[in-house]
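Sample entry (321 residues):
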Amino acid sequence: MHHGDSLLNRSRPDYDEQIDSETVQICIAQTMRRGYDAPYFSRLPIDLHLSDPDADAFPLRLRFKEFASDTDYQYLPNSADFYDDLARAGVLKVSVPKADSACQPMPRPAPVLSRYGVVRGADGKPNALAWELAGQVFYHTLAVLSAPAYRQEHAEYLAEDWPRVPLPASRAVLAQSADLGRRVAELLDPQARPELPGVVGRLVRAGTQEEAPQDLLTVGPKPRYDAARETYALSDTLELAGVPERVWAFTLGGYPVLKNWVEYRKGRMLTLDDAEWLEGIVRRVTALLELGAELDLAYAGATATGPEPDSGPENADKLPE
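Predicted structure, serialized as tokens:
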């Protein structure tokens, strides 16, 4: 998949133009100062420093207008299969060799989607299978990059360069991994409302299990985490109970998720929406960590050898079972 580097390094309007109500992006840095960290999923425009030090956005699709006077956008999957189309549309910047330079442009990336079937219709445009596969590869990528085993196995390489994502030999395995990636996306997406565990992340009156009343929802000047009690003391009268240490230590993009959220709100009274979201952070992170074993299995399935994907014309409109 092509990353959004050329868009992020241009003026902001070019990046904003790629954002609409259907946008989904994987957001990650090439290298991170504190070691590799799992990516974000976002439907909204991202800040350059979403990851430490800098983030790039990898959208599922890219949009463009063939002519400046057009009122409607056209769309292409953000995949190497449509490299030339993206270049002609002006969305992808392609380097060309210079006569007076010994440097050569990077080689053309290998096709991805066409491993699994014919992805162009008679008109040369992406067909239904192309879009189905583009979505599956996108969410499979999110699943693999979130797998603990992937991080451990490639820790040394991930400290130096972009992640390399293995593609399953089987379309059925790709589809299963993509389904898991969609569950990861739902947990990372603030706009989604997934089912969450209710036994963790409860705002209580300090020293009790009593639900904190609204007049106590203020973050003090020195919040502190108590690992022995699995409690985050937000003030002398307010605690966030049911915070396992691995949830407290969880990071995204190189930043501690829970600690950063609270630290930015020191001295403030939380609204009821704030309180609900704070409890939700603990529950979302808990659910995400509990997916670890399934994510590792999906990664193992992606790296397992097997028969080559069906890619003949007779499979052009077939979807994975």
